[in-house]
Amino acid sequence: MTGLEKLGLMTWSEASERWGFNKTYLKDKNKSKGSTIFLENTTCKVGNEKAINLITREGMEYITGMTEDEAKKRKKEKEDEKKE
Fold first, then answer.
1. HSE-up of 50 (CA within 13 Å, CB side)?
2. By CB distance 3.0 to 4.6 Å, which of 1, 19, 59, 77 could disulfide with 55?
3. Residue 79 and residue 35: Cα distance in Å, rounded?
4. Residue pLDDT, tens place only, 15-72
5. Reported pTM
6. Which range marks the domain in which residue 20 is found?
7. How many domains is the chain partitioned into structurally?
């Protein structure tokens, strides 16, 4: 496993969806709260004109307060509640 794989780098859209949120979740958070919501050194912009925002797994856990597994469990519980 390379160093980048260990970081769990994802695009903002991918991370948002993996944690069970709308794909614009991080973009919307950034617009409303600014870059201060991000843990230092866990997000970056890559490229110039059509730049891509990346975030680490640690950064996503910091913002949401849960791991990806916890987020999946929460999403499943919400879906189960809707079925009842």
1. 0
2. 59
3. 31
4. 999 999 999 999 999 888 877 889 999 999 999 888 999 999 999 999 999 999 999 9
5. 0.82
6. 3-83
7. 1
